[in-house]
Amino acid sequence: MPGPPSTMSLPRPSRCYRCCSSSTPPPPKQRAAESKRRPIRGARLLLTRRALAGAVATVTLAVAGRARAAEGGEGVVGAFNSLFDPNEETKAGKVLPKAYLKAAREVVRTLRESLGEGDAAGDSASFRRGADSAKTSIREFLGGWRGQPAVAKEESYVALEKAIKSLAEFYSKAGPFASLPGDVKNKILDDLNAAEAYL
């Protein structure tokens, strides 16, 4: 009589599923390196966002300031246009290049200050020292705008040209070390005031 049938046993796997899985976890050193890189990328992104936010805030404040100062109720749109517009409206209501107005105002300011310093000091040496900034502004003004059709007929340009011409004519005749007389000084100041009224 045959004995009882033997129980068939399944073969054991030689390796566990965790070790043979294709998604093998990276070694500890690799995991540590990746964890260090992630905060750096996050910090760079945060800095970029902060820089962008700062730039936007700066432009917004500038626009808001112009919007508050603007007359006529143009609002934010008008302030944006004014911020990036190469031209500017003068006191007399004319629209002129901003670069010209800046250069002309600088001539008025520095030349007037140099004349005032000459009065306060009472000697030509002090006047010449104070006139250095005026010479620079006059040189830049003439170098950039002399004979330019956009401004050559403007009242401010004509008045500044007269003031500069009076100054140049006096020193060409009296010499570079001569003291500026009162009548010439007053004439130059009058021309500066006339130019400022149109800037």
How far is it from the N-terminal to the C-terminal residue, by CA?
128 Å
Low-confidence stretches: 16-22
Report strand order across the widest sheet. 1-2
Q: How does the major sheet shape up?
A: 2 strands, antiparallel
Number of helices: 8
Number of strands: 2
**Averaging pLDDT over every residue, what do you get?**
74
What series of H and E elements makes up the topology? HHHEEHHHHH
SSE-based structural type: mainly alpha
Explain the overall architecture.
- It contains 8 helices and 2 strands; from the N terminus they run αααββααααα.
- 68% of the residues lie in helices and 3% in strands.
- A two-stranded antiparallel sheet has the order 1-2.
- Residues 16-22 have low confidence and may be disordered.
- Helix 4 runs antiparallel to helix 6 (132-145), helix 4 (98-121) runs antiparallel to helix 8 (182-196) and helix 7 (155-174) packs antiparallel against helix 8 (182-196).
- It has 199 residues and is mostly helical.
- The chain has helices at 17-20, 28-69, 75-84, 98-121, 124-130, 132-145, 155-174, 182-196, and strands at 87-89, 95-97.
